[in-house]
């Protein structure tokens, strides 16, 4: 629902310039309620360009809060949008230091009551946590959406010590983002000189990320899990099960010592009042209660809510996208980890999952390099984009599967399943992928959760070692948190594979993995119902009126899988055209499109190839610019081969190009 009437009229200041101690000018947009009373301010800092990148979501959210008495400042971080400087990498200490300066500056303004909050989704959720750990005096509370406290474990780079293909897609996206010109309507005639300096400083971030394949100091910086106790301000953590960052919510609830609340719903990588799949909630109403409590000292009842409000997915067959809503219902836990949840151990026996061990033969799996195709995308975006996991029966056929008998009663699971396996491998470098599925009476297999582990990292992400070939060893693997009710008559399936393409980059050789039946377990988090579940209530979703927009060309999303039977090559092609639109209130026209093509031979992991392309064009004032980037990744036995190319154009004419080819040694990845 779009709200059009608010308690306060809203004044918009754009640009608001903030000059840092080193002379760098930071560009911001400020939405402020018209009132003589002093008000708090909430800060969001991301590099995605406030005027033409995130403007649609910014206008949905920040004016709504300002209309209810909470000022909001949307910041272009150093080197992005209209701000000076260089954006050298993600989550740098310099970015956090800038944030502390900006918070102090805003808190000192005559209209501010001295209390500041920080919020954001994804990048903005990351830096809200990172800045909170620095304890700037005016920062009293944060709301972090779709983020993580551990940059190595849960970001787009590595998972379980294995390389995510998403890393190269993201680095290519950032190549373009970093290369776009500032808005001449804001910075004036200086825009071209700023753009030229920005282009000269732009290169692929993947060169850095691939140089750090272990969990070293590079990843520890900005990972607040290194010291959760450093965060003393109040934290609300929000995410959705269809997003790849959802693990951070229960982890923060377990480890943060201060005031905290968690909400996990059915959503993908989007704010819970916009995006898909639903049902959406009145997220802004919850945020307003949070900010009024912590920044205004009002008793809004927000801290009387359950510690953990969580969506329990109900019975629904797997689909490539879900519109409009997921099946399910809300539940509540007042503690996390919850003492109410039973850790139920099931044994991996030759006959399936059982309550008692039945020792027997070693059970083998040798997955082809194409295994994993139907498991969706790491970081799927939901909505109408067909990147969710589909029926897992093909994947189950390429894996080693253990089933329960049909359930006699409904069974609700909430939390992270854990595996304890005794395995043997025939190669020193092996990836393990474990999936937990809800199997319908007709055989349909719905992915509930999964986890992966580079077995070289079985003991340490800091100090990996080759697997002991031919010698049994223990593996412990925690799967991703999830919540689902498995109906009576369904079965629960654990599927183990040693490939997970295209989510994971494959190890150099196919491998055979053996599991000792009767000497391995899976621990399931079984949740009984609670009367507290009835207390979970959300208002209907609301936003402010959208930014006035004219759609000039519609967009589309496609996922096409082809098998060249003669060549033995499987290709997965993802393409998204985001259309062309004009933001009428600022006379800016934007269009963008991306494609990701992944190919591999079933019998040859070293044939893996990823080509990712992104194009973005913006016309504003005197500037009509675009940037296009292409990144390619291949590998052999010992090295990754990374190549990238960036081209920038003004009015269709090439004005800048840069490229590089790098050969980077594989470090157990």
| Biggest pleated-sheet summary | 10 strands, mixed
Strand content: 35-45%
Spatial shape: globular
The termini sit apart by 47 Å
What class, by secondary structure content? alpha+beta
- The Cα radius of gyration reads 25 Å
**Could you report the average pLDDT, rounded to the nearest whole number?**
97
Topology, number of strands: 33
Question: What is the helix tally?
Answer: 12
Region (Disordered): 524-555
Protein name: CocE/NonD family hydrolase
Biased composition (Basic and acidic residues): 530-540
GO molecular function, one term: hydrolase activity
Task: Write structural notes for this entry.
With 669 residues, the protein is an alpha+beta fold. The chain is globular, with a radius of gyration of 25 Å. 16% of the residues lie in helices and 38% in strands. The strands form six sheets. Strands 1-2-4-3-5-6-9-10-11-12 form a ten-stranded mixed sheet, sandwiched between helices. Strands 26, 27, 28, 29, 30, 31, 32 and 33 form an eight-stranded antiparallel sheet that branches.
């Amino acid at each position: 629902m779009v709200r059009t009437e608010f308690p306060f009229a809203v004044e918009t200041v754009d640009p608001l310039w903030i000059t840092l101690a080193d002379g760098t000018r930071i560009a911001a947009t400020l939405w402020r309620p018209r009132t003589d009373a002093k008000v708090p301010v909430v800060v969001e800092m991301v590099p995605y360009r406030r005027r033409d990148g995130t403007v649609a979501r910014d206008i949905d959210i920040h004016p709504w809060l300002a209309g209810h008495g909470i000022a909001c400042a949307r910041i272009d971080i150093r080197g992005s949008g209209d701000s000076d400087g260089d954006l050298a990498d993600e989550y740098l200490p310099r970015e956090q230091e800038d944030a502390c300066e900006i918070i102090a500056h805003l808190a000192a303004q005559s209209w501010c009551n001295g209390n500041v909050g920080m919020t954001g989704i994804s990048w903005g959720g990351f830096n809200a946590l990172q800045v909170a750990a620095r304890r700037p005096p005016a920062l009293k509370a944060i709301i972090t959406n779709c983020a993580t406290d551990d940059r190595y474990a849960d970001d787009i780079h590595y998972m379980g010590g294995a390389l995510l293909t998403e890393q190269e897609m993201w680095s290519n996206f950032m190549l373009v983002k970093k290369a776009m010109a500032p808005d001449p309507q804001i910075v004036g005639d200086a825009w071209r000189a700023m753009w030229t300096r920005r282009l000269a400083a732009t290169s692929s971030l993947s060169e850095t990320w691939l140089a750090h394949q272990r969990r070293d100091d590079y990843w520890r910086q900005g990972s607040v899990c290194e010291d959760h106790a450093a965060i003393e301000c109040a934290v609300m953590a929000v995410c959705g099960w269809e997003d790849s960052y959802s693990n951070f919510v229960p982890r923060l609830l377990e480890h943060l010592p201060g005031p905290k609340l968690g909400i996990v719903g059915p959503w993908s990588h989007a704010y819970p009042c916009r995006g898909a799949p639903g049902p959406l909630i009145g997220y802004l109403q919850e945020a307003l209660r949070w900010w009024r409590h912590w920044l205004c000292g009002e008793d809004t009842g927000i801290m009387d809510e359950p510690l953990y409000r969580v969506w329990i997915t109900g019975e629904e067959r797997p689909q490539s996208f879900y519109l409009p809503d997921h099946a399910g219902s809300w539940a509540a836990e007042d503690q996390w980890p919850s003492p109410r949840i039973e850790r139920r151990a099931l044994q991996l026996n030759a006959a399936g999952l059982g309550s008692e061990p039945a020792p027997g033969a070693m059970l083998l799996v040798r997955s082809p390099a194409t295994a994993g195709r139907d498991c969706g995308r790491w970081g799927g975006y939901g909505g109408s984009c067909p990147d969710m996991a589909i029926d897992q029966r093909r994947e189950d056929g390429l894996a080693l599967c253990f089933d329960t008998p049909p359930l006699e009663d409904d069974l609700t699971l909430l939390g992270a399943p854990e595996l304890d396996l005794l395995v043997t491998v025939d190669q020193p470098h092996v990836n393990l992928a474990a999936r937990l599925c809800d199997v319908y009476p007709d055989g349909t297999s719905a992915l509930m959760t999964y986890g992966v582990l580079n077995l070289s990292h079985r003991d340490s992400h800091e100090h990996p070692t080759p697997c002991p070939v031919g010698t049994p060893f223990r593996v412990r693997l925690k799967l991703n948190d999830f919540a689902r009710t498995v109906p009576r008559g369904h079965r629960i399936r654990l599927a183990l594979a040693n490939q997970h393409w295209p989510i994971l980059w494959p190890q150099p050789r196919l491998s055979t993995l053996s599991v000792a039946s009767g000497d391995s377990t899976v621990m399931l988090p079984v949740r009984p119902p609670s009367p507290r579940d009835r207390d979970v209530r959300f208002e209907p979703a609301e936003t402010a009126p959208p930014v006035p927009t004219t759609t000039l060309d519609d967009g589309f999303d496609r996922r096409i899988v082809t098998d060249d039977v003669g060549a033995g090559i499987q290709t997965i092609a993802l393409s998204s055209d985001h259309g062309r639109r004009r933001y009428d209130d600022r006379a800016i026209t934007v269009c963008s499109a991306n494609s990701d093509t992944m190919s591999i031979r079933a019998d040859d992991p070293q044939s893996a190839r990823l080509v990712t392309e992104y194009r973005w064009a913006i016309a504003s004032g005197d500037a009509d610019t675009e940037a296009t980037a292409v990144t390619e990744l291949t590998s052999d036995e010992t090295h990754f081969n990374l190549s990238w190319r960036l081209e920038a154009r003004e009015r269709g004419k090439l004005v800048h190009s840069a490229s590089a080819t790098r050969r980077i040694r594989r470090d157990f990845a």
